[in-house]
Structure formats: C-alpha cells, structure tokens
Amino acid sequence: MIQLTLDYITSFFGLACNTFILLVFGSLSYRKYKIFSLAASGKYTAEGTITYSEFRPQPNIISHYPNEGLITYSYSVKGRLHTGKISPAKLSQRDVDQNYHIKAKVPVYYSPDEPSFSLAGTAPDSVDVLKKTLTSWFFTPFFITNLISFFIWFLFIKIHS
User: Fold this and answer.
1) Helix axes 126-134, 12-40, angle to 10 degrees
2) CATH of the domain at 117
3) Which site in 68, 71, 132, 151 is 20 to 30 Å from 94, CA atoms measured?
C-alpha cells in the first residue's frame, strides 16, 4: 500500500492533483483564516441582541459537548442588519438563562472584510482560530479530495494494466 501511495504521489496525475488541491484549499483556507482572525481579534465589535434562544441539555457521557439547541442574534454594521448563531454545545443552562435569553445584549465580533461573518459572546483565541481554519478549510477538504483523486488514479491504473 505504501508503494502504491508513493507511485500515486510521484505520478504526473498525483502531482497535478496535489498542486491544484494545495493551491485551491490553501488560498481558501487563507481567506477564511483572514476573515475568522479579524472577527476574533476583538477590534471590530457591535452590540448584538439575542432573537431566539432554545437550549436542551443532553446528559450524554460519550460526547464532550452534549447540549443541543439554537441561539440566534442580530447585529448591525454600517446600518445593515446581520444575523448569527451561537452553538449551545459548550454552554450550561445557567449561561443561557443569564446571558443568552431572548433580548439579551451580547458582544458581537465581526470581520470588516465580511460583516456577515461574526462570533458572539467570547471571541476565541488565535490558536483556536488557526486550528479551526486548518481543520475545517484545509486538512479535511485536502484529505477528502486527495482520496477521491487517488481512487480515480487507481481505477485508471487498474483498467490500463
């Protein structure tokens, strides 16, 4: 299997696909990182209002974040109204009751490059931003796309051998 993987990586098809994948997902992840990091920097803030709040604690020892529900908020940037969602996964019932009830005011951190992208409550630190960006917008799509191109290459090799 290792030899087959090396053959794929060193083939013209493998090199072309990996170059394309790196360029596409590299630029996409950089763009997302820039937007996410600007929002997480805390420099660009607005006051948001919770517009919907639903919370259901789920006692589940398997999951690290067992809570379910939906919390939405609205905020305005340069006179334009935007909306966002807060995941209640890491929140407690007490957090929701005190800070995320309907009509509660929350700090919203947004990106000036894309004001519709925002984070509410507490902005994540730069390490979290980097981890989430690399995982969501680079490594996962890179792996899946590379797996698909490897499978296509493998089928082509099998058909022509």
Assistant:
1) 150
2) 2.40.50
3) 132
**Domain tally for the chain?**
2
Rounded to whole angstroms, the maximal C-alpha distance in the chain is: 67
Same domain, 107 and 63: yes
Taking only the tens place, the pLDDT of each residue in 30-83 is 988 888 888 888 889 999 999 999 888 766 555 555 677 889 999 999 999 999
Is residue 117 included in any domain, yes or no? yes
| Residue at 31 is within a domain | yes
**Amino acid, single-letter form, for residue 147:** L
Q: Is 2 within 8 Å of 71 (Cβ atoms)?
A: no
Q: What's the pLDDT band for 125 if we cut at 50, 70, 90?
A: confident
Give this prediction's pTM.
0.72
Calpha distance 83→58 (Å, rounded): 26
Query: Is residue 110 in a domain?
Result: yes
